[in-house]
Design goal:
- The complex is a heterodimer.
- Chain A contains 10 helices and 7 strands.
- By secondary structure, chain A is an alpha/beta fold.
- Chain A has a 7-stranded mixed beta sheet with strand order 2-3-4-1-5-6-7, with helices on both faces.
- Chain A has 2 domains: 188 residues, P-loop containing nucleotide triphosphate hydrolases (Rossmann fold); 65 residues, no CATH class.
- The longest helix of chain A has 26 residues.
- Chain A is 48% helix and 17% strand.
- By secondary structure, chain B is mainly beta.
- Chain B has a single domain, classed as Ferrous iron transport protein A (FeoA) (SH3 type barrels, Roll).
- In chain B, strand 3 and strand 4 form a beta hairpin.
- Classes of the chains: A alpha/beta, B mainly beta.
Chain lengths: 262, 88
């Protein structure tokens, strides 16, 4: 069961959320980050305010969707709700997490607040557990400079194993580099080696036992290590989401089988 | 109560009892479930430095500096966070 166009990227958004009919996109990029880190400023700066908001069915959370063109390719940007974590304490977090896990964007940009980096890195690590295709965008560097905060971006990138781009989206600083980094990730010219959080021995042993079984069930489509961790968390929302996802995949594959038989 | 290399004695108190302007480190989080999860997400783990910043006019909630951010906790939440306080 491989990844099909329908099961990933823009196909998944279309199926789940009924958007995207009017804009064709070559790549789908998700924007994640804590609240008030300037995610939407980055979004507007990249898309040039060429956005319309979409309402997720049955949810009160507003999401924005927009696009920009770089080297003749269309990138669709999805502005996820601001969250401190992906552990699904709230609807917003669940939306962001489900999108990153099941929507499988081609790349994820994690927007961090340079003035409060330590706390923001928590989310970056959580996103890194789900996907390897991410870029860390340290935003509000102008604000940090004013507060006399100095950040060693190269060291941060080396430690995290992913590209780190400093930006001040308000004044447009660093956006060019961000666009380049995104295109590097989606085309594969930039390779990432995200830092893996190691847990206690008992937990790692349990993951080792769960991971192969999960891989059997979901293949390479979902991140087995991350799912194992959520199972150990006994996170019912993840279990429900995976069951939904499996049901959808089954429908898809039986659909394909029927086509082949016909 | 424990003593560290001739330091002043470290007391374990709740975050709510930390005087304004004083620093302490988190010892443990007593909260459970979603509240606990939320506190961990805000960066409150054992060893995290916290500072009491100010008290609202009614005495509750209080504002704390945690990992560069200002966060307010109600009394019932702050009481579930135990801290090592050296009285500095």
């Amino acid at each position: 069961m491989g990844l099909t166009n329908q099961s990933s990227g823009s196909g998944a958004i279309k199926e789940r959320f009924g958007w995207g009919q009017n804009t064709r996109a070559d790549y789908v990029i998700a924007l994640a980050g804590n609240p008030n880190t300037g995610k939407s400023t980055v979004f507007n700066a990249l898309t040039g305010l060429n956005q319309h908001t979409g309402n997720w069915p049955g949810k009160t959370v507003l999401l924005a969707e927009g696009h920009y063109i770089h080297q003749c390719l269309t990138y669709k940007l999805i502005d996820l709700p601001g969250t401190y974590s992906l552990m699904a304490n709230s609807v917003e977090e669940q939306v962001a997490r489900d999108y990153l896990c099941f929507g499988r964007p081609d790349a994820t940009v994690v927007v961090l607040d340079a003035t409060c980096l330590e706390r923001n890195l928590n989310l970056a690590l959580q996103v890194m557990e789900i996907t390897t295709r991410l870029i860390v965008c340290v935003n509000l560097v102008d604000e940090a400079q004013r507060k006399k905060i100095q950040i060693d971006y190269d060291a941060l990138a080396a430690k995290l194993g992913v590209p780190v781009v400093p930006t001040a989206a308000r004044s447009g600083v660093g956006l060019e580099q961000l666009i380049k980094a995104v295109s590097g990730i989606v085309t594969g010219s930039i390779e990432t080696k995200p830092y893996v959080v190691r847990y206690k021995k008992e937990i790692e042993n349990a993951i080792c036992r769960l991971e192969p079984k999960i891989k059997q069930l979901v293949g390479e489509a979902l991140n087995a290590r991350w799912l194992a961790l959520r199972l150990l968390d006994r996170d019912q929302t993840v279990i429900d989401a995976v069951e939904n996802w499996l049901a959808r995949e089954d429908r898809l594959t039986t659909g394909i089988k029927e086509v082949v038989l016909a | 109560m424990e003593y560290k290399q001739g330091d002043c004695p470290t007391k374990i108190i709740s975050l709510h009892d930390l005087p304004v302007g004083k620093l302490a480190t988190v010892s443990s989080i007593q909260a459970a479930g979603l509240t606990r999860r939320r506190m961990l997400d805000l960066g409150l783990v054992p060893g995290t430095r916290v500072k009491a910043l100010r008290i609202s006019p009614a005495g509750d909630p209080k504002a704390y500096r945690i990992r560069g951010a200002v966060i307010a906790f109600r009394k019932e939440e702050a009481q579930q966070i135990l801290i090592n306080y050296k009285g500095e």
